[in-house]
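User: Sequence in, structure out. Go.
Assistant: Echoing your sequence, followed by the structure tokens.
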Amino acid sequence: ENNLLSLDHLAISHLIEQSCRKAKDRNKISIRFGEFSDILHEAHHYAHLNSKDQITSDEIEKAIEAKYYRSNLIQEKIVDMIDRHTLMIELEGSKIGQINGISVLDLGDFMFGHPNKITVNVASGKHGLIDIERESKLGGRLHTKGVLNLSGYLGGKYGQNKMISLSASLVFEQSYSEIEGDSASSAELYAILSGLSQLPIKQWIAVSGSVNQKGEIQPVGAINEKIEGFFEVCRQRGFNGEQGVMIPKGNMDHLMLKLEVIQAVKEGKFHVWAISTIDEGIELLTGVPAGKRLKNGSFSKDSVHYLVDQRIEDLNKILLKGGSKKK
């Protein structure tokens, strides 16, 4: 109807892939025909400039990338700030009580992910988990629910035969707007386990995923944007062959990544790990076995859970010792 050039088979395939990406599901397609009409018109223009008699996959990709380029100025500025260390994101080495979560910024017609440093400090006390975002009134209801789930997990895992007496402060560093959603709750829990066990976390792995009280990793939204956002930061800084994103296994059907990300994964420059439980994740992040509960109620020696359990006992003793002195 618009006198556009016809599409070859690869162009049609590429357009369908883009439709699945818009639907955020590899098994579904979007019916936002207006957006695809814009892509086709722009692709037609590029084909016409190159004196082609058909629209090919190259023109479709060029039209998609041109739209992305026109919208991603804020993302470029954030990536540049990270590269210049104005936003202090670490992509190498290992740190105790520190992890890279991933936030999403939605600008209406454009959405992108970028890493956020999450840190935890653990000390003796009775305050439990202190959500600094909530205390400073920057934490939304869903984020608060996610943090409360962490308390449930700690109680269920380590509080069956003893009290858990600790003070652990949790914060998104260099974040000055409201934090909403629970998609970073697994990253927050990994940071807490690291702080308690004193096992360092690999900083070249970013984490997205919600966690329930049983330690199961739940799917989250905008998974493609989150992976691609961390990919952009790593590309700007330079790939080291180890960087990647840990995602919930339940998000596998939602993956419709850009071709450049897929190619980097195939070449081993970038990685995507899909996990189902906190145990799987903490093993990948620390390189130490998560550990199994033994018949006597303790955990297998020198495992993550064993070290966390021992630290909780030590913190309990410190608190009891301090209380007895006051008396």
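User: And one key feature?
Assistant: The mean pLDDT is 90.
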